[in-house]
Every structure is written in structure tokens, then in C-alpha cells.
Amino acid sequence: DARVTYRHRVSALLKTLAHCDVTDILLWVAFVYCVITTLFVHSSSFLATLFFGCALFRIHILGNLKEQLDKFQKENDQFRRGNAQLKASVDNMHQENINLQVANGKLSTSIGQLEEVRVALETFAASTGNDIQHLMASLGNSIQEQRTIQKNSQEIQSRTKLLALQQEKAMLMNLFFQIQNQNDEKGLSTEEFDTFLDMLPREGRERMHGKLDNFASNDLDGDNIISMKEFKRVIIESAEIICGARDDRYNLEMTEP
Fold first, then answer.
1. Contact 63, 70 (CB under 8 A)
2. Could you tell me the superkingdom of the organism this chain comes from (predicted)?
3. The 3-state secondary structure of the chain, one letter per residue
């Protein structure tokens, strides 16, 4: 029974060691060796062993640091891919909004031309005495249908524009928090702000209408940090410029992802 128990203990120990980091095992061996050296050999051998143990410990720390850096790099790559997809979605929505605006312009021109035709027909009927009431009614219905289509199209354009702005806000917020979270301090320092601008797509900067071109103008309290509150103000002001007026639907809470 004693032999069986001993084998079980040895087997359990080997399984535990199999799941341990190699550097951890070496550290424990070095520790035991240091203890034995202290008890049985000269001090010079002990010091050599101690230095060896310190070197292994440093290697262990560096190994953990590399794992953390690899983890941060992986998270950063995932964020960049997600941000690129969000940017593509924002760009598509902005382009769709432009297309809707062009279509609405053409529709307005068409309605104007129909109105001109209606006036011309009324003038013709008055001068000739012909009864074209049926034709005029049909034309009036056509103009009304065109106006209804135009109204619906304008509403779709407005919603698309708002959604594009909200998604662009999400992209800017994600970028803000990603750079902010690189250290333990909240907000963006001067260097982090420059990094933010470097990572911001050119089209995004242009749509901000110069609001992000100067660090000092956005650091309202002069503490050399652009806080989340100050950054939110920049986004809302830029949205007002793009929308042409204040839109409370765009004034959402900024919460850290």
C-alpha cells in the first residue's frame, strides 16, 4: 500500500510539473539549491547560486512581460480591424447620404417642371376655353405623389445622416478610449492627442471641420489633458456643424467600452 501511495504522489507531482512553466520549475530548483548551498557549502558558491536564481527570476519577469505585450498587441489588432470595419460602414453611409441628396435634388427639379407644365396648361385652357379639368386633376395628383415621395426620401436622408454621425461618433469614442487606456491616466495628453490624429482617417478629420486640429483649443481647463467631457463637446459641436443645427438625438452619453 505504501508503494502504491508513493507512486500516486509521484504521478500527481509529475502532472503538476507538466502544467507548470519551465522557468517556474527552474526557479524552484534554484531556490532549493540555494538552501542546500547555504547549509552545506561555502559562501562563494552560495553567492553564485543566488546570482543564478536572480537571473532566472529576471527571465521569468521578462517572459511574463512578453506575454502581456503579445496580449495587448492582439487586442490592438482586433480593435484596428473593428475600427476599419466601422470606418467602412461610416464612409458607405456618408456616400449613401450624398446619393440621396442628389436624388432629392433631381426630384425637386422634376416637381418644379411639373408645376410649370400645370401653370402652362391652366393658361392655355383659359385662353382657348377648352375644358381640361380632368387632365389638370391628373397632373395635380402626379405632383402630389412626387411631393410625397420627396418627403419620404428626405426623411430617409435625415435618418441615414443621423445614423452615419452616430456611427462616426462611436468610431471616435473607440479610438479615444483605446489611446487613453494605454496608461493609467484618464484623457489624452499632448502626445496621445497626436497619436489620435495620426490614427484618425483623413475623411474623418475633414468632417470634424478643423475642431481637432489644435490641442490647446480643446483643453478648456488648461490641465494639458483632453478629458472625455472636453472630447464629447468637440464631437457634438462638429455634429451641429454637419447637421446645420443642434440635434439632441446625437447627444448620447459617452461610456467606456
1. no
2. Eukaryota
3. CHHHHHHHHHHHHHHHHHCCCHHHHHHHHHHHHHHHHHHHCCHHHHHHHHHHHHHHHHHHHHHHHHHHHHHHHHHHHHHHHHHHHHHHHHHHHHHHHHHHHHHHHHHHHHHHHHHHHHHHHHHHHHHHCCCCHHHHHHHHHHHHHHHHHHHHHHHHHHHHHHHHHHHHHHHHHHHHHHHHCCCCCCCECHHHHHHHHHHCCHHHHHHCCCCCCCHHHHCCCCCCCECHHHHHHHHHHHHHHHHCCCCHHHCCCCCCC
CB 209, CB 185: distance < 8 Å: no
Query: Which residues are paired to 226 by β-bridges?
Result: 188
**Per the structure block, which three cell numbers stand in for 136?**
389638370
Nearest to 189 by CA among 223, 225, 221: 225
Tens of pLDDT along 110-160?
878 778 877 877 787 777 766 677 777 777 888 788 888 888 888 887 777
Planar angle of CA 199, 200, 203, nearest 5 degrees: 140
CB neighbour list of residue 122: distance below 8 Å, 6 or more residues apart: 136
Cβ atoms of residues 132 and 118 within 8 Å: no
Q: What angle do CA 203, 205, 211 make, to 5 degrees?
A: 150
| pTM (global) more than 0.70 | no
**Lookup: cell for 239:** 455634429
What is the C-alpha to C-alpha distance for residues 152 and 150, in angstroms, rounded to an integer? 6
d(CA 57, CA 30): 10
